[in-house]
Amino acid sequence: MTAMEEHYRIAVRTLCDFTAREGDLDHRFTPSPSAREGIAGHLLVAKRRGADHEVELPLSGSYQGLVVSGRADGYNPRANRLEEVKTHRGDLSRMAANQRALHWAQARVYGALLCAERKLESVTLALVYLDIATGRETRLTEEASAAELAAFFEVQCRRFLAWAEQESRHRQARDANLHRLSFPHPDFRPGQRELAEGVYKAAATGRCLLTQAPTGIGKTIGTLFPLLTAMPRHGLDRIAFLTMKTPGRRLALDALARLGVARSGEQDVQPRPLRVLELVARSKACEHP
Length: 289
Prior knowledge:
single chain; Lambda Exonuclease, Chain A; elongated; 2 domains; alpha/beta; six-stranded mixed beta sheet; 8 helices
């Protein structure tokens, strides 16, 4: 962990969700407790601990410009034990291994931050699972050295920084391309310019716009073009284009291809400035929904 100029800030849980998540999309260990039940469960565990038990311990550290911070659920200085508390409902043995690994990742990052802050040579990490239905705790522990935890922390940080730097390069290339974006037709149709101007002003000022236009004026291009033009000039991260029917979705994809910012099909291999994600209903996309 090094102290350098700050470029990024991220929470421990967000970091681990991004860098340590692995495995498949098995969601059978459900339903999970609600946010309110989770808070109540954490309070219950804290009340069961002794007076010397530190709760909601703020920790932070940095690595090559990335600042990672968060609050550890609990730490017992006398036992030198750091706890990460998770609430659950149902048979704990049914929890997927990749979900358990994600919980361990959070505990290890907190352990690395704790060891660095308090100059510890080692620490006992504990995953505490609380069944909200019965109040029963299940504790899993592991011993870890400060060196092991620091190495784990640095791996997670390097993974995030590699993605962040790649994303920054993509954003710069995207914005440069969108700054040069031009309307794909010689002129606007009647009413289309007014629509485009209204959409651009709404995007630039962060306001809502409710508009009604007749069929045939080019509403799709008249909406997407000003939004894409506003993206680099007003720091817009993404655009969501929602349609009620499938044909409208096809019109939007065709419009992006016509603007030259997205691929026109599988045969189009030229690099484009936009990442376009088409959302399809699970019943249509999944063989076994």
